[in-house]
Amino acid sequence: MILMIAGTILFFGIHALPFHTGWRNTLINKTGEKPYKGIFSLVALTGLLLIGLGYSTANYHEIWPPVEHARSIALIIMPLTFILLASANMKSHIRRLLKHPMSIGIMLWSGAHLLANGDQASILLFGSFFIYALISMISAEMRLKYLGDGSASLKFDAIAVISGILLYALVLSAH
């Protein structure tokens, strides 16, 4: 569990930098944009690896019983989640309409998994992602920060749907 907590702190700590544009800009000015992005990615990946390792080795301590039919509901929600994640960095109508498809997708993913898993490690894992996605969305709204210029193409919606479903199938086969 300590590895998971350390990974969670590392992952969300580095993801808190963009909320502090002054810190972020100072680091970019000192290192350059590409090195900043490289360091950011390396720290985030290290955090994710520690989260995964910590979660896979955590002892099971049930806090609440899984919600009945939650796993079936998750199987329905998860393709939508992957479509939202895929559309987050494309000029799709999905992104134009929802503004924050990545945050919404992460909230759906983590919410579905919280319903299906009521153990301590799952609450830390999925709860922290849910809270971060919610804070990220609220913060972006407060800063009026939206990705893109409002333009969209059905081509990117199709790509998001197809790639989201393919990624879902890949993840489901290894889950």
Would you mind describing this structure in some detail?
- The chain has 175 residues and is mainly α.
- The protein has helices at 2-15, 21-31, 33-57, 70-87, 93-98, 101-116, 120-142, 154-174.
- 77% of the residues lie in helices and 0% in strands.
- The radius of gyration is 17 Å and the shape is globular.
- The two termini are 21 Å apart.
- The model has no long low-confidence stretch (mean pLDDT 91).
Low-confidence stretches: none
Q: Structural class per helix/strand content?
A: mainly alpha
Largest sheet: none
**Count of helix runs:** 8
Average pLDDT level: 91
Gap between N and C termini, in Å?
21 Å
Strand-residue proportion: under 5%
Strand tally, please?
Answer: 0
Shape: globular
Order of helices and strands: HHHHHHHH
Integer-rounded radius of gyration: 17 Å
Amount of helix: over 70%
Give the gist of this structure.
The protein is mainly α. It contains 8 helices and no strands. Helices cover 77% and strands 0% of the residues.
Give the key terms:
single chain; mainly alpha
Element layout with pairings:
Layout: H1 2-15, H2 21-31, H3 33-57, H4 70-87, H5 93-98, H6 101-116, H7 120-142, H8 154-174
Helix pairs in contact: 1-3, 1-7, 2-3, 4-6, 4-8, 6-7
